[in-house]
Amino acid sequence: MLSSAFFIVLRRMRAPIIALIVIYAIAVIGLTLVPGVDAEGHPAPPLSFFHAFYFVSYTATTIGFGEIPNAFSDAQRLWVTLCIYLTVVGWSYSVVTLIALLQDKGFQNTLTVNRFARRVRHLKEPFYLVCGCGETGNLVCRTLDRLGHAFVVVEKDEMRVQELDLQDFKTDTPALAGDARNPDHLLLAGLTHTRCRAVLAITNNEETNLAIAIAARLLNPGLPVIARARTTGVAANMASFGTDHIINPFERFAEHLALAIGAPERFRLVELLTALPESPLPEPHRPPAGRWILCGYGHFGKRLASHLAPAGIELSIIDPLCANSLDPTIICGLGTEADTLRQAGIEQAVGVIAGSDNDINNLSIAVTASELKPSLFVVARQNHSVNGPLFAAYGADFTLVPGHIVAQESIAILTTPLLAAFLDLLRDKPEAWCSALTERLLKIGNDLTPLIWSARLNIAEAPAAYRALMQGDHITPAALLRDGTDRTTPLPAIILLVRRGKDLVLLPDDDWALAAGDELLLAGPLAARRNLELTLYHPNELDYVLTGEETSGSWLWARLAALGRSSASPQPRKETS
Amino acid sequence: MNLEKVIFGFFILLAATLNFGFFIGDIERPELHNIYELAAALVVSLIATALKFGDRTQIGAVHLSTSLVADLQLIAAAITWAVAVHVTGVGMTPHVTSSVVSLSGGALFANIVSVIILIVETVMLRR
After folding, report:
1. How many beta carbons lie within 10 A of that of residue A298, not counting itself?
2. Chain A: closest CA distance from residue B43 (Å)
3. Is the pLDDT of residue B127 over 60?
4. Model confidence pLDDT, tens digit, residues B4-23
5. Which of A40, A81, A145, A262 is 20 to 30 Å apart from A346, CA to CA?
6. A153: phi then psi, degrees, rounded to nearest 5
7. Contact assignment for A49 to B35 by CB distance below 8 Å
8. Do A14 and B51 touch (CB under 8 A)?
9. Are A147 and A168 contacting, i.e. CB atoms less than 8 angstroms apart?
């Protein structure tokens, strides 16, 4: 890889190097021909090749030791004057060419790509390949970084890649400015790297996402692919060749809104669990049931309508492209004018959805509608994160940011595969159950959303707990979830779900017995996760948490302690480590 | 006709002929081996090397390596001459002369390989 940069240098430097060789040859040969003079002024033989080359070497590089070995004759001085100008021009030409080459865009690009490829090749830890670092990608990157996962970025826009360098990432993040549609770029970014865990195709462009999904499926068939799709056509296309997770933000938001109207407590719980970890708590949303006005009937509007209708919501639809539609109930207009909204029956409506793809229009719809009827529940769609301050200032009851939804879901899927199973189990839980769990989650979180993570009680991830369980120790969630620095305080974490083989146990009781090989889904702050990980990993920590005994790891000390105990109490103590 | 090819062939052939010119003659007799001819052979060989820079093909790589070998041999010959004449002061004795000439003989071999590659390349050419 480096050799390509080296060859470019050689190729460009060909002319200056030849010029230098020729100039040196002329100067040296000239000096060996021009007669010299000795100390008494008699003619002397010219310089030999050796002396001539020595003289030209130090003169050409402007070091200039003087006339060595003897003072020159006037003829020699005449020739040397010429040589000085010749060689200076030769050197300047070489240096200028070299500097121009270093500043050359194409050359610099070669160097950057080489460096990127080398960094990716040398990645030792598992990493995610994030394609597209716009609003969504940036959010994903920052969250991955906070959770301590490595990732590689491919982004089309060079400015965004440069901005990435300025962001203070904890992990070393190689970023490539290149089109992810080009499979070469994906390969450079480690698509077939053994440490690559998953590919995230979350660019703004549907075609690009599709191309990434196809490339990943063909080049590395076993690799999980998470792709963003806005239209059902593209989503179906992605599904047809086995993309693992297709995230359609509109679909997801429509589901959420329908859920929020039908089962607000369950929605609150889902929102809490799928939010980005350790972010501010989302506002509770309580959209009312009844008649709603939907402005904008594009991809988003159609998704919403198909989800809201089964939830028993009546919709009045306003769309500027009503002429193309066969549905006579669609009202013409943007929804930004009071007339259109009145025509859609704003008096009887309980809520309005400003769902066009234009942020300013959406804000205008929201403002006009709430002026006409202040009690309206306003749902606003925010397309660009730069408009965030405007939407925050307006304060809609429910703001949809598609980028956030994609980021949240990608992170949830990547970091906790068990979460999907848990959310499935939630579907048939009563509202009271959900609200009770929400209360518990809020209590452990310090006004931040909890981190959801999974822990496996196996030899690799939790060797201490695994050994203890294999030796027949009885470990319960209540005993395990204790602070490792002071075991009298419980750890602010909840075991949401346990997977044992094919069985799923939802919210295990405090005295339920854990077994080796269990996979736990936990919720709690990041600090609690670190605390628990150490407990599960380190036998002495586990001993302390379970029994309160401080044991040292050394064999001799363990023997002495056992001796002391056995003389003090006759009954034998169970070995723990 | 490609001017680049003309110049390229010219320098490779010239490097070989100059080298041959210096090499030919009784190996021990300094008067048969002109030092200017060695200088010319070295300069032309260096230029030929520079002309071969940056060719990424397999044949280009072999071209470059033969040229580097020739340069190395000729530089060694030049240094031997400089040491004998200027540093130790023994002058061009039969011993020194035969060293210089045999070193240039090695370079001649590399230059001949270079010429052979050039011919092979030309024969393979279909245009």
Report:
1. 16
2. 6
3. no
4. 788 889 999 999 999 999 99
5. A262
6. -115, 135
7. yes
8. yes
9. no
- A21–B47: do the CB atoms touch at under 8 Å? yes
- Chain A residues closer than 8 Å to B47 by CB: 18, 21-22
Closest C-alpha to B105, from B65, B77, B66 = B77
The secondary element (H helix, E strand) that includes residue A7 is helix A2-12
- pLDDT tens for each residue of A312-332: 778 888 888 776 666 667 788
How far away is chain A from the Cα of B112, in angstroms, using its nearest Cα?
22
- Cβ separation B43–A50 shorter than 8 A: no
> Which pLDDT tens digit goes with each residue over A457-507?
888 888 888 888 888 888 888 888 888 888 888 888 888 889 888 888 888
Q: Which residues of A touch B46 (CB under 8 A)?
A: 21
Per-domain boundaries in chain B: 3-124
Any CB–CB contact under 8 A between B88 and chain A? no
Binary contact (A50, B53; C-beta < 8 A): no
| Whether this model's pTM surpasses 0.90 | no
Domains and CATH numbers, chain A: 2-103 (1.10.287), 121-247 (3.40.50.720), 257-415 (3.40.50.720), 421-568 (3.30.70.1450)
Within 8 A by CB and 6+ apart from A496, the residues are A422, A452, A506, A507, A521, A522, A523
* C-alpha distance from B125 to closest chain A C-alpha (Å): 23
